[in-house]
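Q: Can someone sanity-check these two? First one:
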Amino acid sequence: MINTKPNRPFLLYFFLWVAVAFQACTTNETFTFEKQKIATETLLDCKKKECASIKINLVQVLDNAPACKTMNSEIEKAACSVLTIEEDQSYSNIDQAIKEFNQSYEDASNEFPEEIPPYEATVDCELSFQCKTMISVLMDSYIFTGGAHGYGAVSFINLDTKTGKPIKNKDLFKDYSVFMEYAERVFRSKYEILQNESINSTGFFFDNDTFALPENIGITNTEVILYYNAYEISSYAEGPIEIKINKQDAASYFAFDIL
């Protein structure tokens, strides 16, 4: 199972270059990815006052082509959304998002100095899959802003290499409803739920007692991942629900060549 709280060591103040090559849709150009590491201390002076603990590990494409710039922007925007506390806020620049997250901690700490523990946020991105027409990026995040516990989540960002834009889940498949029927059979088989039984009979809470695909569908070199984060179809105590499907079995349903 994918870890919902990243525990990989974050090395600060430098860039780790990761050469990851793949062929673009229309050219033979090779794209190279980097892992960019950013922390609170790289942007703010935390020697004189306590800062929120923020550690960001972004995957970025090293290319100036418009599609590559768009891919980088979409990945950065997704990382910013993890740091966004207020519902009416949105950021597309990670530096700004870090500063605003830290400012939220400072404001809360100034108002309740004895009650507010340090805020914490980590975002760790990895290239999960690549082919000529798409890439899949896994984003493993954790955020703590007080309370009994923090919240860890996994997101998959599927991007069209031609446009750089996110691919909607429905557009991943030739027929979304047909794949959903197949996925339900896989889900019922894993959790031993008979076809004539309620999908929620073993304790899940799908809306309207109807199976639904998760918000996050990812691809690796060997598997298709259906990832339900905590609270999506189960309680926090139950944790995330992860369904792994062999790519050979699922490939015919996809609108992209994932093999």
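And here is the second, same format, sequence then tokens:
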Amino acid sequence: MTDQFQFSLTDQEKQALKDLVRLSIASRLFPQQGIQLPDAPSGKLQEPLGAFVTLHLDQRLRGCIGHLVGDAPLWETIADMAQAAAFQDPRFSPLGEDEFERLELEISILSPLTRCSDPALVEIGRHGLLIRHGGHSGLLLPQVPVEWQWDREQFLAQTCRKAGLPPTAWRDPQSVLFWFEAEVF
């Protein structure tokens, strides 16, 4: 993975996806209002890409759920992950009506996963990581090590910990390390 992820969205497309996240959550949170999701757009928002929706409340994580594999149009994936982040993240109780207006949104559109050929090539802020070992797996988005000010070794160790593995599991030949890039907005 030497080339940068070439996918990019216009400001209008990014805003359309952020609006979709809010509408998707609101349609479930306030069903009595009969909120309808807009018709699916054409173009890049129809491309099958993986994506994560991250919700923050008062500058703290409130939910983050994603889908790694691009097996549905991006538009549909974003709508589904918005509801999953708000209502199905097992780390949090379902989002309440009183929290909706204060939500801060972040969307990460993922490049395809590829096997990381050399962990020494992992770049903080550019790459996200996924480790798999036995029945364990853990993923961290590219923005996470930047937010926590981790170096490469800490990022690799924390990805292992996220999977419930020892921090050096990335060095184990039985572990499989993948990397990806993301457009985050």
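A (reply): Looked at the second one. Strands lie at 51-57, 60-67, 103-110, 114-115, 128-133, 136-140, 176-180, 182-184. Residues 11-29 form the longest helix (19 residues).
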